[in-house]
LacI family transcriptional regulator
Amino acid sequence: MARVTLQTIADEVGVSRMTVSNAFSRPDQLSAALRAQILDAAARLGYSGPDPAGRALARGRTGVIGVVLTNSPRDAFADEVAVGFLRAVAATLADEGYSLVLLHSSERSDVDPVRDIAMDGAIVYSCAPRAREVTALRERRLPVVTVESAPLGDEPRILLDDAAGSGQAAAHLLEQGHRDIAVVVTSVDAADEPLDPAHRGRASGTIGRRLDGWASVLTGAGVVPRIVGTPGFDVDDVLRERIAAMLDDPPTAVLAFSDLAALEVIGQARDRGLRVPEDLSVVGFDDSPLAARVSPPLTTVRQDVDAKGTAAATTLLALLRGERRPDLTLPTSLVVRGSTGRPPVVAAG
């Protein structure tokens, strides 16, 4: 069967090729009756519409926005915070006629979504500035907005007030009477050792800001926290093993960089017979939907995930219109629940 084209439809209806194209892409240029006649002929001949690549070239935009994730899509969708962020981004973009595509690394040399997918701009979500995907985006000179990432250049940034939230969490533990406190993080290679400025220098942007908040409050009260970390960017096997080693000589409280990390600490503590919060207080960060559902409910630092996703999308849409918006820092706040309490009383020798 011969390939059906715009010209095929034009010949069938007795109009120009441009008129057929307008029936699909600029319907306001035709009468309702003529457009209906063209679409009926297209349906009868099995023609679904002009080639999307050609339409994008003609319009000067693809209608597609990319999102670069720290992790693979498989791992990202295990994190309710990332899912909520993507949901808010997708909803905001859809209202403006844009679609969302996830960009990720590929082990295949012939497939590189960041390099090959046609898009109008991208959102970089919690990625290191030297990540290969980020470098590829910058080489394409696409409009970019970064979210919870170190600055890439002069791209607009959406940030959380991480230091304020983590500082509130540290102050809460001090008020409860804790002095032996550990912090659990990613992007820092640390195996249960005293926190010092060198750790801060190795941390990613988000983790670094959270360390600033914890450290400023704790050290100001004369408490040097222990730091347990992994050089990776997620709760990986290295971090799990180091949490286990920390619990061989447990602190009385843990400040975790995320709710998922906090739940890992709680799970391992329970496997050892440690009670939360009677033997070990744990604080997370994010206030994911899971935080209120676990037992005991998790004390955590809340961020507004919907506001973060909406801000990222609207900032990028403004860039596409030629408008530059300033960096935006969203507030955080401590939510006290049942996973924290006073430290255990140590019996006199």
